[in-house]
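Closing statement on the tryptophanyl-5'AMP sub-project.
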Amino acid sequence: MKSRVLSGVQPTGNLHIGNYLGAIKNWVRIQHDYESIFCIVDLHAITVYQPPEELRSKILEIAGLFIASGIDPKHSAMVVQSTVHGHAELSWLLTCVTPIGWLERMTQYKAKSQAQETIGDGLLQYPVLMAADILIYQAGIVPVGDDQAQHLELARDIAQRFNSLYGDTFVMPATSLPLVGARVMGLDDPTKKMSKSAAGAGHAVALLDEPGVIRKKIMRATTDSQPAVDFAHLGEGVVNLLSIFQGFSGWSQSRMEAHFAGMRYGDLKKQVAEMVVSHLEPLQQRYREITSDPAYLAGVLREGAERVSPIADATVRLVKQRMGLYTP
Ligand code: TYM
C-alpha cells in the first residue's frame, strides 16, 4: 500500500514564509509520491479564542493558499478537520491512554499557557488531537517544520502506548523536516521563531503581503554589526536571510557561498527580497483567481472530507473494538 502523508495548518493569523518553507513547499514537492491529506485544523485553532467570523473566513483563506501554493486538490485531499467527526472522537479515545505528565512537558503548551489568563483544557489536549489527526489516517509521513517535532514524538509515544495496551493498531508516523527552512526566524528578531501570532509589523512576511511591503520588511531585517557576508562568522540574522533565499531558490550550499561571500548586507537584502517577491507574486495571482469562485473552494473541501471519511471511520471503529467499546 502507498504510504500516506498527512499534515496540517491552523487557520489563525496570516500564513507566512516560515509556514511555506517549513511545511507547505514540501507538501507540494512530495504530494504525488503518496496518498496525501492536508488539513485545516480548525479544532486546534479554538484552543485559544477566535472571533467566529474571522475563523470562518481564515479557513477559506488557508484553503485558497494551499491550492495557490501548488497543492493539487485532484490528487491530495484537502480537509477541514472539524468536518470529519472522527478526529474529535479519536482524540477522546487517545486522551484516555495519555498520561497528563506527557502533555505538561510540551514546550508549546508551556509557552502558550503562560500567555493566557485562564488555561483552557483544550490547550493541554492540543497534541492529543494532533496525534489523532495523524493516527486516524495511519499516516506514515508527516512533513512539518521543526517546531512540531516534539508533538510528533508524542504522537508516536501515544501510538506505541495504545499498541502495547490493546494490540498493534497504529502505524508509527515519521517526522519529515525540510533540509532548508525548517525553522525560519523573525525578521525583527532572529532569535525568535517566525510566528503567525507574534505582533510587530516587521516580524513576518505573510504569503499575501504586497510586494512593496515584502521589500520593506526584508530591507529592515535585523542583521549584525558586520558590513558584509562572511561565511566564517555568520550572525543569526544573516543566516536567516540566507536560508530564506535558499529555501525559495533551491540553490546548493556551494552556489550560495560562491554568490553571497563578501556581499554587503544591503545588497543581500535586496536579492532576498526579489527572490521572495518573484515567488509570492504568482502565488498571489493564483490565490485571487481561486478565491474569486467560492463555490469551487467549498466543493474541494466537501470532496476532500468525503474522500477521507471512510478511512477515518474505519480507524475509529477498529480503535473502539480494540478498547472494548460497544460497536454493533
Ligand atoms: P502551524 O499552523 O503553527 O504551522 C503550520 C506548519 O508550519 C510550520 N512552521 C514553520 N516552519 C518553519 N519556520 C517557522 N517559523 C514555522 N512556523 C510554523 C509548522 O511546523 C507546521 O508544519 N500543530 C500544528 C498543526 C497540526 C498538525 C497536525 C501538523 C495539527 N494537526 C497533524 C501536522 C500533523 C500547528 O500548529 O502548525
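The chain is about 55% helix and 5% strand. With this model delivered, the sub-project is considered complete and its resources will be redirected to Aim 3.
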